[in-house]
C-alpha cells in the first residue's frame, strides 16, 4: 500500500510553476523542473523512454555495464600490422570511421583518404585509377568499429598499415588504432600527395617497428594512469593530447634506445613523436574503445558504447542493442576556424575520436583542459560547465580520471541514452574540423553535440528489445 | 608490528593526494605507520628509508601501480586500514560532491530526484500527451504521482494505475484538479484546517467544496485524495479510490471518510461501497445524482449534495451538526428578489467555473424547475445544443474544453465569464444569474474583484431597460486561503449579490426566486 500519507510529500513539479509556488507558499517543499517534452515531443519515443526509466532490469543491466567499463584496464601492448592484427580484416579491405557508408556517399576527406590508402597499398598508381578500382567494386569497405578498431577523422586503415594494439588486462578485450601522422597534409584529412604516401611508408617501415620495440621493452604501458596524469596536466585526451604525448615520449625515449633500435631510426622516431602533439590521440582512442567495449553486450543496458561519425552520418550504439547503429545527420561543428577558412569550408562532424567522450574523456573532461575551450571562444568556467552538465547524462563517474578544477571530482562516465533523451542534454564532443574537400586538412577545431535523434532511436530499439 | 602491502594496479593519484591518504590512514587506531605511493623506483627507495620496506624487499608493482603500506600493531588492523585507504582514494571530494552537478536546472524527474533525493511525489501538469509518460517514470522511480493533466487515454490511465497499484503507490488522476496531502496543497486547493476527516474525490471542485465547508464549520481534514474524473468508470474500476480508501483506513488520524463522485457504473459503485462499508471508519458518500437508497448501508451514509456530505462528515467528526440553513431569511430575500422581477424574467442562467458545481446546480434546479439546458446536464436529453447561446434555464460549465482551448481556466481568467454575464443581462427572459466563486491556491488572486464590476455593469444595463436581475453566488474557500473567504463574500454582498454558503444553497436560493416569481412550483 502507498506510503503517501505517512509524511508530507516532497514534490517534484513537472508543468505549471504556479503549483510549485503554492506548495512553497503553504510551507511545503517543491522542486520545479525545467521540463520540456522528451525526444523533441515525439510521444512514441517518450513512452518507450518512460517504460525504461527506473525499470529494475534496465538499472541492473546498467550496473553491470558501467561496472565493466570502470574495471576495464587498457594496456598498450604493442604495434602490429592491420591485416595480421585486426580480426575480420581482408586483403582488399579498407576500414573507415563512423557508421558504415558506401563510397558514393562518403564525404570529401574520406574519399581522399580512400584514394590515398589505395595508392599506399599499391593497388593503383594514381588517383584516377584508384577511383576506377573503387568503382569496379574490387575494394571492400567496412566501419572500423565493426573490427574493434577506431581511427580519427577519415579513420582509414588499410591492410599494410601499422596499428596500435591495446588490450583490456581485466576483461581480455582488444582494440586497434592507426598511428598519428601529425598535422597538415595527412591522410586522415583526405590528402594523398606523394609526401603523404611516403610518410605512411616511413611510418610502416621505421616508426612502427621502433615504437613496437620500445613498447615491448617496457612490457606494455598501463594507459589509465597515464591518461589520469595527463588530465592533471591540462589534457582531455581528445582534442588536447600535449601532456599525454609528452608522458608517452618520456616512457618511449629510453625504451627505444634500450631495445637496441639503431640510433638514426630511434632519433627519427623520437623527433617525429616530439613534433606530434596529437601522437597519443590514437592510443587514447583505442584505450577508450577497450573501456567502452568492456561494457558492450549487456542485455537491457542503455549505456552508450560508441558514438562515431563518418562526415555524413552520426552513429550511436548501445550496450543492450548489439551491433545496431542509430543514425542521424552528422552535425556541423561550431568552432574556431583557421585564418582564411569560413564555415562553408567545414565538413560535417567526422571521425571515431568521439569514442573518447563515450568513455568520459574529451568534452566530458573538458573541465580539466581549460586551454582548449578557447576554440569556442569560451572561458575556463565554460569548460568546467560542460563537464558539470555531462554528469546529468552519465550513469556515474570514473574514479580513475579526476578533474582538478572540479575539486578532483571523478570524470562523468558511462553515457546513459535514457538520461540523454529524458533531459534533452546532448553529449558534448570536442573535435577538430576537417575541410570538406579532400586533402586540404584541418581548418579548425571546436565543440559539437551528439544528435538527440540517435539516442531517441536507440531508446525505442531498447524498449522493443526488452518488451517486444 | 608487521608491515602489510597492497597493490592497486592501474590507479593513478598525484603525490599530494597520496600523502593526504597516508596521513589519514595513519590516524586510524592500531596503525603505526602508513604509506601510499605510485610504485616508482624513487618512491620505493623512500619507503625503504622510512622502514616500510626492507632494504632487500622486492615489490610486485610498477610505476603505474599504486602501492599501499601499513604497519599495524595487530595484523587484523591492516585489512581495515587498506579498506579505508581505498575508500579515501576513490571517494568523491566533498567540495566537488556538492557542486559538481550545479548550474543545470533539473529537466527530468530523475534529475529532480538527484537534486532532491527525498522527493516522494511528482505533480504532472504537462500537456496531456506527455503526462502518462511522466507519471510512469515517477512510479518506476518509486514515487507517487498526481496527474493534473487531462486528455490522457483510458488505456494509459489503466496502465498507470495498474503499475501504481502493483508497486504500492498511488496515482491520482488523470484530470485530478485537487488534492491536499499532509497539509500540502496540490493543484487547485484551499487552505484547510487539519482535522480527522479524510476526503476522496473524483472531482476537483467537489473536493474543494467539501473541504472548504468542513473548514467553515470548524472541523478539519487529514488528507484529501483526488482520483481523477475517470477513476470510477467501469473500465478503470476505481483503482485509485479503492487504494486511497485503504490508505486512509490505515491512517490512524482519519476518523471519518467522505467519498465524492458522479454516479459510478453500478458494479464499480458496489465495489467502492462494499469497501467503505467494511472500513473501520464511518463514511459519507456523495455520488451526485444517485439515489440515496442505492448508497446507504452499514457504516455508509448517503449525501445528496456536496454541502450535505460536508455537514454529515462534520457531524460524525464533532458530534454536532453544523448550523443549518437560515431558511426564513433565505425565503425573505428570495421573495424580495422575485418581487422585483418583470413578468418576462423567468429563467436562471448559471455561469460556472467549476464543472462539478455546474452539474450539482443542474441536478438541483432541474429537480425543482424541469429541464435545465447544460453542457453538464442532469439528464442526457438536456444537453445544450449551442454552448454559446443560453436557452430557458441554462447552466454552463465554462471550464469545458470548448472554452479553455487557447486560454487559461475560468478560475484564473475571467474574461469569458465577464462577457457572458453582460450577454445574459441583455436577455429580457433572465431572472437570475447564478455564479460560483472559487478561492484557494491556483485560483485568481481576487475572483470577487473580477466578478463585481461585471455584475454592477450588467445590473445597470438591465435597469436601463427597466429590469432588475437577481445575482446569486457562493464562494468556495476558507479564511486561510490567500484571497480570504470573508473579504471575498463581503465584496460580493456589497455588490448586492445574494450569497449561499454552498453551491447547493445558492442553487436553492435561485430556484426559490424563480419559483416564488411564478407563484407555484412545477414539481
Please tag this protein with its features.
heterodimer, A: 468 residues, alpha+beta, four-stranded antiparallel beta sheet, 15 helices, 18 strands, B: 523 residues, alpha/beta, six-stranded parallel beta sheet, five-stranded parallel beta sheet, 19 helices, 42% helix
**What does the main sheet of chain B amount to?**
6 strands, parallel
Helix content of chain A: 25-40%
How many angstroms separate the termini of chain A? Answer: 30 Å
Which radius of gyration of chain B do the C-alpha atoms yield? 34 Å
| Biggest sheet: strand arrangement of chain B | 15-16-14-17-18-19
Distance between the ends of chain B: 103 Å
Alpha carbon gyration radius of chain A: 23 Å
| Proportion of residues in β-strands of chain B | 15-25%
**Helix coverage percent of chain B:** 40-55%
Name the strands of the widest sheet of chain A in spatial order: 6-8-7-3-9
> Mean of residue pLDDT of chain B?
92
**Which two chains touch over the largest interface?**
A-B, 72 and 86 residues
Poorly predicted sequence stretches spanning 5 or more consecutive residues of chain B: none
| Structural class determined from secondary elements of chain B | alpha/beta
According to DSSP, the number of beta strands of chain A is 18
Described by the principal axes of the CA atoms, the overall outline of chain A is globular
The backbone outline of chain B, from C-alpha atoms, is elongated
Helix count, DSSP H or I runs of 4 or more residues of chain B: 19
Amino acid at each position: 500500500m502507498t506510503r503517501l500519507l505517512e509524511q508530507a510529500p516532497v514534490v517534484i513539479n513537472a508543468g505549471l510553476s504556479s503549483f510549485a509556488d503554492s506548495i512553497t507558499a503553504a510551507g511545503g517543499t517543491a522542486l520545479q523542473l525545467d521540463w520540456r517534452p522528451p525526444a523533441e515531443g515525439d510521444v512514441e519515443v517518450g513512452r518507450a523512454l518512460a517504460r525504461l526509466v527506473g525499470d529494475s532490469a534496465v538499472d541492473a543491466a546498467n550496473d553491470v555495464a558501467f561496472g565493466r567499463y570502470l574495471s576495464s584496464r587498457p594496456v598498450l601492448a604493442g604495434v602490429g600490422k592491420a591485416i595480421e592484427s585486426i580480426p575480420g580484416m581482408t586483403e582488399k579491405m579498407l576500414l573507415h570511421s563512423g557508421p558504415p557508408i558506401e563510397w558514393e556517399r562518403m564525404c570529401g576527406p574520406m574519399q581522399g583518404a580512400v584514394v590515398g590508402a589505395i595508392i599506399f597499398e599499391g593497388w593503383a598508381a594514381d588517383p584516377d585509377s584508384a577511383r576506377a578500382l573503387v568503382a569496379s567494386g574490387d575494394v571492400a569497405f567496412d566501419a572500423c568499429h565493426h573490427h574493434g578498431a577506431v581511427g580519427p577523422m577519415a579513420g582509414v586503415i588499410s591492410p599494410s598499415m601499422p596499428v596500435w594494439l591495446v588490450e583490456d588486462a581485466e576483461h581480455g578485450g582488444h582494440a586497434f588504432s592507426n598511428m598519428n601522422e601529425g598535422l597538415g597534409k595527412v591522410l586522415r584529412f583526405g590528402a594523398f600527395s606523394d609526401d603523404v604516401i611516403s610518410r605512411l611508408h616511413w611510418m610502416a617501415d621505421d616508426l612502427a617497428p621502433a615504437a613496437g620495440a620500445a613498447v615491448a621493452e617496457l612490457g606494455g604501458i598501463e594507459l589509465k594512469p597515464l591518461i589520469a596524469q595527463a588530465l592533471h596536466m591540462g589534457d582531455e585526451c581528445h582534442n588536447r593530447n600535449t601532456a599525454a604525448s609528452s608522458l608517452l615520449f618520456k616512457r618511449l625515449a629510453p625504451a627505444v634506445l634500450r631495445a637496441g633500435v639503431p640510433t638514426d631510426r630511434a632519433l627519427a622516431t623520437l623527433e617525429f613523436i616530439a613534433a606530434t602533439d596529437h601522437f597519443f590521440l590514437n592510443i587514447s582512442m583505442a584505450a577508450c574503445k577497450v573501456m567502452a567495449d568492456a561494457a558492450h553486450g549487456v542485455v537491457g543496458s542503455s549505456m552508450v558504447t560508441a558514438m562515431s561519425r563518418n562526415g555524413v552520418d552520426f552513429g550511436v550504439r548501445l550496450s543492450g542493442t548489439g551491433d545496431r547503429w542509430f543514425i542521424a545527420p552528422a552535425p556541423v561543428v561550431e568552432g574556431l576556424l583557421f585564418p582564411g577558412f569560413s564555415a562553408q569550408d567545414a565538413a560535417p562532424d567526422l571521425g571515431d575520436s568521439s569514442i573518447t567522450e563515450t568513455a568520459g574523456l574529451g568534452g566530458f573532461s573538458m573541465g580539466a583542459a581549460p586551454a582548449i575551450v578557447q576554440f569556442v571562444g569560451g572561458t575556463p568556467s565554460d569548460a568546467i560547465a560542460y563537464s558539470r552538465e555531462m554528469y546529468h547524462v552519465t550513469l556515474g563517474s570514473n574514479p580513475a580520471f579526476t578533474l582538478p578544477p572540479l575539486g578532483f571530482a571523478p570524470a562523468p562516465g558511462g553515457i546513459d541514452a535514457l538520461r540523454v533523451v529524458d533531459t534533452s542534454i546532448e553529449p558534448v564532443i570536442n573535435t577538430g574540423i576537417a575541410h570538406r574537400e579532400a586533402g586540404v586538412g584541418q581548418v579548425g577545431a571546436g565543440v559539437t553535440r551528439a544528435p538527440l535523434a540517435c539516442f531517441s532511436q536507440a531508446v525505442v530499439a531498447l524498449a522493443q528489445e526488452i518488451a517486444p | 608490528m608487521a608491515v602489510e602491502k597492497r597493490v592497486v594496479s592501474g590507479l593513478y593519484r598525484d603525490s599530494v593526494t597520496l600523502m593526504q591518504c597516508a596521513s589519514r590512514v595513519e590516524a586510524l587506531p592500531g596503525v603505526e605507520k602508513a604509506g601510499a605511493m605510485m610504485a616508482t623506483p624513487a618512491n620505493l627507495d623512500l619507503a625503504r628509508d622510512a622502514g616500510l620496506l626492507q632494504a632487500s624487499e622486492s615489490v610486485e608493482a610498477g610505476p603505474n601501480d599504486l602501492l599501499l603500506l601499513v604497519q599495524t600493531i595487530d595484523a587484523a588492523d591492516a585489512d581495515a586500514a587498506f579498506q579505508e585507504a581505498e575508500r579515501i582514494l576513490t571517494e568523491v571530494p566533498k567540495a566537488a560532491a556538492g557542486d559538481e552537478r550545479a548550474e543545470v536546472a533539473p529537466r527530468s524527474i530523475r534529475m529532480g530526484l538527484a537534486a532532491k533525493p527525498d522527493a516522494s511525489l511528482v505533480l504532472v501538469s504537462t500537456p496531456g500527451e506527455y503526462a502518462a509518460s511522466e507519471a510512469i517514470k515517477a512510479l518506476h522511480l518509486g514515487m507517487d504521482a498526481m496527474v493534473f493533466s487531462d486528455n490522457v487515454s483510458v488505456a494509459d490511465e489503466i496502465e498507470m494505475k495498474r503499475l501504481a497499484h502493483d508497486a504500492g503507490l498511488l496515482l491520482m488522476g488523470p484530470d485530478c484538479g485537487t488534492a491536499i496531502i499532509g497539509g500540502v496543497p496540490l493543484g487547485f486547493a484551499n487552505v484547510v484546517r487539519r482535522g480527522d476527516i479524510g476526503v476522496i474525490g473524483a472531482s476537483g471542485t467537489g473536493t474543494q467544496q467539501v473541504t472548504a465547508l468542513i473548514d467553515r464549520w470548524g472541523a478539519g481534514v487529514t488528507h484529501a485524495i483526488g482520483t481523477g474524473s475517470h477513476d470510477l468508470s467501469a473500465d478503470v474500476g476505481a483503482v485509485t479510490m479503492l487504494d486511497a480508501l485503504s490508505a486512509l483506513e490505515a491512517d490512524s488520524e482519519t476518523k471519518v471518510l467522505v467519498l465524492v463522485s458522479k454516479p459510478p457504473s453500478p458494479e464499480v459503485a458496489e465495489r467502492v461501497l462494499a469497501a467503505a462499508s467494511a472500513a473501520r471508519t464511518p463514511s459519507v458518500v456523495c455520488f451526485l445524482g444517485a439515489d440515496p437508497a442505492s448508497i446507504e448501508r452499514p457504516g455508509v451514509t448517503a449525501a445528496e449534495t456536496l454541502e450535505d456530505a460536508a455537514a454529515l462528515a462534520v457531524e460524525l467528526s464533532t458530534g454536532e451538526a453544523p448550523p443549518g440553513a437560515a431558511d426564513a431569511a433565505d425565503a425573505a430575500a428570495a421573495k424580495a428578489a422575485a418581487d422585483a422581477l418583470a413578468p418576462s424574467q423567468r429563467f436562471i442562467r448559471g455561469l460556472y467555473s467549476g464543472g462539478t458545481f455546474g452539474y450539482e446546480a443542474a441536478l438541483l434546479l432541474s429537480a425543482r424547475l424541469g429541464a435545465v439546458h447544460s453542457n453538464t446536464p442532469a439528464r442526457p436529453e438536456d444537453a445544450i445544443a449551442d454552448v454559446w447561446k443560453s436557452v430557458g434555464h441554462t447552466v454552463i460549465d465554462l471550464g469545458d474544453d470548448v472554452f479553455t482551448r487557447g486560454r487559461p481556466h475560468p478560475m484564473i481568467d475571467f474574461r469569458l465569464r465577464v462577457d457572458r454575464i453582460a450577454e445574459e443581462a441583455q436577455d429580457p427572459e433572465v431572472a437570475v444569474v447564478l455564479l460560483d466563486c472559487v478561492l484557494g491556491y491556483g485560483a485568481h488572486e481576487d475572483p470577487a474583484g473580477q466578478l463585481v464590476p461585471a455584475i454592477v455593469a450588467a445590473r445597470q444595463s438591465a435597469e436601463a431597460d427597466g429590469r432588475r436581475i437577481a445575482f446569486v453566488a457562493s464562494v468556495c474557500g476558507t479564511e486561510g486561503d490567500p484571497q480570504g473567504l470573508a473579504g471575498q463574500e463581503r465584496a460580493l454582498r456589497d455588490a448586492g449579490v445574494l450569497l449561499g454558503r454552498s453551491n447547493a444553497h445558492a442553487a436553492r436560493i435561485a430556484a426559490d426566486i424563480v419559483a416564488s416569481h411564478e407563484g407555484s412550483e412545477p414539481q
